[in-house]
Write a structure and sequence with these properties.
It is a single chain. By secondary structure, this protein is an alpha/beta fold. The chain folds into two domains: 213 residues, Rossmann fold (3-Layer(aba) Sandwich); 144 residues, Rossmann fold. The chain is 42% helix and 16% strand. The protein contains 13 helices and 14 strands. The strands form four sheets. The chain has a five-stranded parallel beta sheet, with helices on both faces. The chain has a five-stranded parallel beta sheet with strand order 11-10-12-13-14, sandwiched between helices. A two-stranded antiparallel sheet has the order 1-2. Helix 4 packs antiparallel against helix 11 and helix 10 crosses helix 13. The chain binds 5-amino-5-deoxy-1-O-phosphono-D-mannitol. The site of 5-amino-5-deoxy-1-O-phosphono-D-mannitol has 17 residues, from helix 4 and helix 11.
Length: 390
C-alpha cells in the first residue's frame, strides 16, 4: 500500500489505480501508439454507446433506474477537468438548445473552492474518463455532503467517482491508455447528448417527432465518424507548419468553440507547442493582435447557424497573414473566401452532431505533430493519465 499525503502533510487514504483485467488485455496490436489505436476505435465507441443506450426497435433511449424525478430538476451543472470539461461545455450548448433547464458549466478545481449556492433542484453532473481525478472527486464529494443530486459520466465504472455518485452513466468505450484523451471525449459527448435528449423528451421540451429524428441520426453517426478518420494524408502534410510556428490558434463558434479548445489542448499536450482555443467572435477583442504572417490558424466552421459569422472572422485573420486550415462539412456551395491555406471537409449531419466529426482531424493533427517531433505520444512529459493529486 502506498502512502499519500495532503498539502498539510496529513496521511490520506487513496486508492491505488490498478489496471482492470480489461486494461491488462488491451494491446496496441499493429499500431505504434495506443493513441493512434484509440483514435481509430472511435466509430466503435459510438456504435457501442448507441447500442447500450438506444433501443433500436422502439427508437427510444433507455436510461434505467434514474433516481431523480424530472419535475424536481430545474437546472443542470456540468463539472469536469481538461478534456472532460470541454465535453461539459458542448453539453451546455445542447441542453440550452433542446431543454428548458438552466445550465452551467464548471471547472472542478474552481468549483470546489468557490462559495457555491447549492440548489436542491439542480442535477450536478460529473464527467471523468478515469473516475479518479482528484478535483472532480472533491467537487462531487462537496455536492454529496450538501445532499445534492449527483450523477457521473465515466469510463471506468469501478472508480471512486462512479462509486460515490448517486447515478452513473458509463461511456462504454473500453480502456483508454494514451494520456491524451480521444475516444473517451467522443464517448462523454455522446452520453451527455443522449442524457440531454432523454430529459428533453421526458419534460416534453422537444416534440416526439424531433426526438425520433435525432435518435435516427445517432444510428448513422459511427459511419460518419469513420469517414472523418480518412483525413490522414492532408493532416500529415500540414502538421510541420504547426510545429515550426511560434504558436497557433483554434477558432470556432457555438458547438465548435469547445472543439477549438479541445484541438488546442491536444496540440499543446502532445507536441509541446503553444496553441490557443478561442471563440471566433472574440478575436477582435485582443487576440487578433497575435496574428502575423504565416501563423497557422484552425477555423472550425461547419455549415450551421454560425457558419457565415465564423467565415467572416476567418477572413479577418487571413487578411492579417494567417495560414488558415478550415474544417467544414461537404456542400455543393463553395466556401465564399479567398486565400484559404487548406480545407478539410467532414460529412453532413444535423448541426448537433458536427462536434463528433470535426474533432477527429484535430486529434490527428496533434498526433502527427508529436510523431514528427519524435515525442512520447502515449506519455507526454509532465502529465499523468489519471490526476489523483491536486
Ligand atoms: O480522467 P478525467 O477525464 O477526469 O481526466 C481529466 C483530465 O485530466 C484529462 O481529460 C486531460 O485533460 C487529458 N490529458 C486531455 O487529453
Amino acid at each position: 500500500m502506498l502512502n499519500f499525503f495532503n498539502q498539510s502533510g496529513k496521511k490520506i487514504n487513496k486508492k491505488i489505480l490498478l489496471l482492470s483485467s480489461d486494461e491488462q488485455n488491451y494491446e496496441k496490436g499493429d499500431y505504434k501508439h495506443f493513441m493512434a489505436k484509440e483514435i481509430d476505435e472511435q466509430p466503435n465507441t459510438i456504435k457501442n454507446c448507441v447500442n447500450e443506450y438506444i433501443d433500436k426497435i422502439n427508437k427510444d433511449i433507455n436510461i434505467f433506474n434514474f433516481p431523480f424525478k424530472e419535475k424536481e430538476i430545474n437546472s443542470i451543472t456540468l463539472i469536469g477537468c481538461g478534456t472532460a470539461y470541454h465535453s461539459c461545455i458542448i453539453a451546455k450548448y445542447w441542453f440550452e438548445q433542446l431543454t428548458s433547464f438552466d445550465v452551467s458549466v464548471d471547472i472542478a478545481s474552481e468549483f470546489r473552492y468557490r462559495k457555491n449556492k447549492f440548489k436542491k433542484d439542480c442535477l450536478y453532473v460529473f464527467v471523468s474518463q478515469s473516475g479518479e481525478t482528484a478535483d472532480t472527486y472533491a467537487a462531487l464529494d462537496l455536492c454529496n455532503k450538501n445532499k445534492m443530486k449527483t450523477c457521473s459520466v465515466v469510463n471506468v465504472i469501478e472508480s471512486s467517482i462512479a462509486r460515490d455518485s448517486k447515478f452513473v452513466l458509463p461511456i462504454h468505450c473500453g480502456p483508454e491508455i494514451g494520456v491524451a484523451s480521444t475516444k473517451a471525449f467522443l464517448g462523454q459527448m455522446l452520453v451527455l447528448y443522449i442524457l440531454c435528449l432523454k430529459l428533453a423528451q421526458k419534460r416534453k421540451d422537444i416534440s416526439k417527432k424531433d426526438y425520433l429524428i435525432r435518435i435516427k441520426k445517432l444510428f448513422s453517426l459511427a459511419e460518419l465518424v469513420k469517414k472523418s478518420l480518412m483525413t490522414e494524408d492532408k493532416i500529415q502534410s500540414i502538421c510541420s507548419s504547426f510545429i515550426d510556428a511560434k504558436g497557433s490558434m483554434f477558432l470556432g463558434r457555438g458547438y465548435s468553440f469547445p472543439i477549438a479548445l479541445e484541438g488546442a489542448l491536444k496540440l499543446k499536450e502532445l507536441a509541446y507547442v503553444h496553441a490557443e482555443g478561442y471563440p471566433a467572435g472574440e478575436m477582435k477583442h485582443g487576440p487578433l493582435a497575435l496574428i502575423e504572417d504565416g501563423m497557422p490558424v484552425v477555423v472550425i466552421a461547419p455549415r450551421d447557424q454560425h457558419y457565415k459569422k465564423t467565415i467572416s472572422n476567418m477572413q479577418e485573420v487571413i487578411a492579417r497573414g494567417a495560414k488558415v486550415l478550415l474544417i467544414t462539412n461537404k456542400s455543393k456551395d463553395e466556401v465564399y473566401s479567398e486565400n484559404i491555406w487548406e480545407t478539410i471537409e467532414v460529412e453532413n449531419t444535423n448541426d448537433d452532431l458536427f462536434p463528433f466529426l470535426v474533432t477527429i482531424p484535430l486529434q490527428k493533427l496533434a498526433y502527427y505533430s508529436a510523431l514528427k517531433k519524435g515525442y512520447d505520444i502515449d506519455k507526454p512529459r509532465n502529465l499523468a493519465k489519471s490526476v489523483t493529486v491536486e
